[in-house]
């Protein structure tokens, strides 16, 4: 290499470094460092009540797993993530198949279905809190009563509250998944359907033999997204029930924020964060494993 | 045969109508309630208002300190999005163009952020932001929004796009004596327009609608964003729905308008984010 070239590569690398370094520094200071700190603090006694921070081993984790409230919160998050993934994706695929048409009506319904996704989760939460109220003028119960049913205590019944919150989130996010499925459907070669039609496959068979396997890219993305999104669930619970009634809708995030910020048990909340991390990791690994298997089956 | 097709069409129409009703009913209810008196809202929740009154909006604008909260939202969202576009596009360009181990290692670190949810870092992050004296300031929230939450995905999306831009253009420019930095902004960046719009749209939605970050990092009412104002007012207005609902409308109206005007771009952005993600 000529000296001149060498100098210019060196200068180029220096410019490259200056272009990437500010972002890297910001990311390390505001993400990597606090994430590592969470792991470190999880084995200490750091809280607003302790004057000095010292190592306590796995005490926080022991406390965490012997606390029934925390265990329920973890269960809720997992239950919630699985249910929202199944409900949202099933509905989104059905709607995508129905709306994948070049017509004004289909376009209109598509826009309308996506609309709630641009609203804030918190606003949707408040809105449904009023729609679901048992007080006079609650829309859902008025409709039920109009058809002769009994008023339902959507958010006050501890066996029901979690599902009520779930409904609001399915309402809000199905459109988001749907547009991703529609884009995927558009990429499917229509001659495949003609071939399947000639083989005598009816519409239902065509869906399961042609459409669903070829929806693999959108499905794997959407499933992972709604699973992880469901695990992180915070805003909707926070505004609609605050985790109640009792602890019926408490999730990992609401517990973590309450323990870490309202109750000042910082290290305990960090231990919770570590547990959260492990659950998300296991979850995404397991799901990726099955999705890969599915991909293998399709290609075979 | 004709009859069967007709039934099919009818069924399809009814289905679409039902879907639209389910999607629109809550929004319709939200809108009509804002124009009603409290008594009317209870008596006929889904009826059309007998007369349209804007009193509720006037009351809400005052209670939630609308113009200030709106400005706070705007400052946080616009600055964060600009920072994200600038930092992510530059970083992604370096990662895509240089094979150096150092930069590839940095990319690997950035991508850790795509796998680990940022919520895990939140408690120590609170301490770091206080330590930097940025608690209860807009720059504090902006830094968190940019570097902690949204940077990895933005870099990932930009990198995928830069890889599709042919090298010949910048090689020619470099021969003409254009420096690397200048060359990026003058030649490459203008070519990134489609992905800039994707990144800007996805981040605007995420940041405008984010409630947890401002909740944790902004305490004084003067600095708070629209969603915090809504949250602050829910107690005092808990029995006065008709005054509370306009707050919900106004907190979301800017993004809804944005969506109605730029529908195609928003949906394309969401799709592009998924296809490359």
Describe this structure in words.
The complex is a heterodimer of chains A (300) and B (277). Chain A is an all-alpha fold and 300 residues long. Chain A has 13 helices and no strands. In chain A, helix 4 crosses helix 7 (161-186). The radius of gyration of chain A is 25 Å and the shape is globular. In chain B, helix 12 packs antiparallel against helix 13 (241-261). In chain B, 76% of the residues lie in helices and 0% in strands. Chain B has 14 helices and no strands. Chain B is mainly alpha-helical and 277 residues long. The chains are: A mainly alpha (300), B mainly alpha (277). At the A-B interface, helix 1, helix 3, helix 4, helix 5 and helix 7 of A face helix 1, helix 2, helix 4, helix 5 and helix 6 of B.
Write a short abstract of this structure.
Chain A is mainly α.
Strand-helix topology:
The complex is a heterodimer of chains A (300) and B (277).
Chain A: H1 3-41, H2 59-66, H3 68-99, H4 104-114, H5 121-131, H6 139-146, H7 161-186, H8 191-198, H9 203-214, H10 216-232, H11 235-240, H12 252-262, H13 266-299
Helix pairs in contact in A: 1-13, 2-13, 3-7, 3-10, 4-7, 5-7, 7-10, 8-9, 10-13, 12-13
Chain B: H1 2-33, H2 38-43, H3 55-63, H4 66-97, H5 101-115, H6 122-131, H7 138-162, H8 168-175, H9 180-188, H10 193-208, H11 212-217, H12 226-234, H13 241-261, H14 263-275
Our estimate of the beta-strand percent of chain A is under 5%
Quickly count the helices of chain B.
14
Total helical elements of chain A: 13
The major pleated sheet of chain B works out as: none
Give the termini separation of chain A. 49 Å
User: How many beta strands in the DSSP annotation of chain B?
Assistant: 0
Which features characterize this protein?
heterodimer; A: 300 residues; mainly alpha; 13 helices; globular; B: 277 residues; 14 helices; 0% strand
């Amino acid at each position: 290499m000529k000296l001149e070239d060498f100098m210019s590569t060196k200068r180029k690398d220096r410019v490259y470094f200056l272009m990437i370094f500010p972002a890297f520094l910001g990311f390390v200071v505001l993400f990597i460092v606090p994430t590592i700190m969470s792991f470190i603090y999880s084995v200490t006694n750091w809280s607003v009540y302790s004057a000095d921070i010292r190592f306590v081993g796995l005490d926080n984790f022991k406390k965490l797993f012997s606390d029934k409230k925390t265990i329920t919160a973890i269960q809720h998050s997992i239950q919630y993530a699985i249910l929202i993934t199944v409900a949202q994706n099933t509905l989104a695929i059905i709607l995508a198949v129905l709306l994948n048409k070049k017509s004004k009506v289909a376009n209109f319904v598509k826009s309308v279905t996506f609309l709630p996704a641009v609203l804030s989760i918190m606003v949707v939460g408040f809105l449904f809190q009023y729609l679901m109220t048992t007080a006079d003028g609650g829309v859902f119960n008025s409709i039920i009563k109009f058809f002769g049913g009994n008023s339902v205590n959507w958010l006050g019944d501890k066996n029901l509250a979690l599902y009520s919150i779930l409904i609001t989130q399915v309402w809000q996010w199905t459109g988001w998944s749907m547009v991703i499925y529609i884009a995927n459907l558009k990429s499917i070669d229509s001659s495949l359907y003609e071939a399947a039609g000639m083989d005598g496959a009816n519409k239902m068979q065509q869906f399961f033999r042609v459409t669903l396997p070829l929806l693999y890219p959108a499905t794997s993305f959407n499933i992972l997204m709604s699973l992880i999104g469901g695990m992180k669930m915070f805003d909707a619970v926070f505004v609609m029930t605050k985790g109640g009634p009792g602890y019926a809708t408490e999730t990992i995030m609401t517990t973590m924020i309450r323990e870490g910020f309202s109750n000042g048990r910082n290290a305990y909340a960090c231990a919770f964060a570590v547990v959260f991390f492990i659950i998300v990791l296991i979850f995404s690994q397991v799901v990726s494993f099955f999705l890969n298997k599915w991909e293998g089956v399709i290609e075979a | 045969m004709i009859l069967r097709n007709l039934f099919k069409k009818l069924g399809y129409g009814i289905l679409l109508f039902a879907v639209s009703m389910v999607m629109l009913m809550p929004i319709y209810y939200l809108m009509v309630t804002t124009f009603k008196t409290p008594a009317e809202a209870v008596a006929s929740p889904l009826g059309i208002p007998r007369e349209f009154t804007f009193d509720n909006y006037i009351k809400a604008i005052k209670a939630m300190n609308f113009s200030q909260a709106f400005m706070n939202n705007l400052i946080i969202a616009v600055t964060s999005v600009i920072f994200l576009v600038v930092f992510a596009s530059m970083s992604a360009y370096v990662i895509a163009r240089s094979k150096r181990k150092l930069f590839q290692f940095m990319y690997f670190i950035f991508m850790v952020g795509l796998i680990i949810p940022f919520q895990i870092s939140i408690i120590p992050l609170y301490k770091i932001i206080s330590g930097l004296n940025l608690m209860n300031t807009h720059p504090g929230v902006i830094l968190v929004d940019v570097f902690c939450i949204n940077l990895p995905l933005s870099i990932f999306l930009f990198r995928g796009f830069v890889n599709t831009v042919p090298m010949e253009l910048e090689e020619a420019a470099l021969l003409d004596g254009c420096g690397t930095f200048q060359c990026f902004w003058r030649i490459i960046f203008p070519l990134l327009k489609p992905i800039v719009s994707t990144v800007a749209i996805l981040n605007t939605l995420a940041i405008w609608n984010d409630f947890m970050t401002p909740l944790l990092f902004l305490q004084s009412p003067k600095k708070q964003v629209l969603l915090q104002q809504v949250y602050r007012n829910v107690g005092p207005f808990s029995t006065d729905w008709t005054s509370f609902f306009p707050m919900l409308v106004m907190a979301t109206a800017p993004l809804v308008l944005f969506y109605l005007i730029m529908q195609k771009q928003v949906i394309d952005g969401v799709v592009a984010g998924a296809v490359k993600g």
